[in-house]
Amino acid sequence: MAMTPELLAYYEQDREDGRLRAGRGRLEFWRTQDVLRRALPPAPARVLDVGGGTGVHAEWLAADGHRVELIDPMPLHVERAARLAGVTARQGDARQLPLPDESVDAVLLLGPLYHLADRADRVRAVAEAVRVVRPGGLVAAATINRYAAVHDMVYQGSYLREGPREAAQAALTDGVLFGPGDGFTAYLHDPDDVPAEFADAGLPEVTRYGLEGAFWLYGDVDDWLDDPERRALMLDAQRRLESVPSLLGVSGHMLTLARKAS
């Protein structure tokens, strides 16, 4: 899959930046931030944000005092991310990182595994993260859950249409989602497949976090996120449920964390 012309056209619309800054996408953003802040070493750590887009996460990481380098295949994303204070950005591929061995404190893969349909490519991307991170350093990777397309299309109402419904149903079998109409294509992981991919890349011990839980499917989720008091309660509730195995697949996204052997 990787960066097809259709996928490049999708990202050139510059929609991903806004997705995490508004609406229910904020739940994914704040939960990612919450999990990573608990796991990252104290600032100033050298953090490599691979596939970091326009710098949605790089921005707050730099504000927290980390030294952030962002790598992304999209020139538009690199150009925008490079404008952020405390962030350096350049083009690159998650499967062949342009950094020396053991040169960073943490590697974040918060997007690349979405677009690598071949298992060998996903393992290679994680293995590259392992190569460049120091011993004891953190590797964190986000994945889209196998059931997210069905859940999201029912929530949005697009499941009523034959094209989107067939695409979501097909993804349940092989994980490959061909987004009808918008060019977005993705690989959707079975949550239980991720630890084996990490193990094959050299990280045998992982911790998995469901990011949104079931809350992203609630009709009034925006109201909760808009209200600081209710938002704090929702985030606390999901933190308590984040690693319950039976609930991992309900989240739209999962974050998997591991540390390189010392």
UniProtKB/TrEMBL annotation:
Pfam families: Methyltransf_11. Keywords: Methyltransferase, Transferase. The lineage of its organism: Bacteria, Bacillati, Actinomycetota, Actinomycetes, Streptosporangiales. This is Class I SAM-dependent methyltransferase. InterPro entries: Methyltransf_11, SAM-dependent_MTases_sf. It comes from Streptosporangium vulgare. GO terms for molecular function: 2-polyprenyl-6-hydroxyphenol methylase activity; 3-demethylubiquinol 3-O-methyltransferase activity. GO terms for biological process: methylation. The keyword Cytoplasm does not apply. Its EC number is 2.1.1.222, 2.1.1.64.
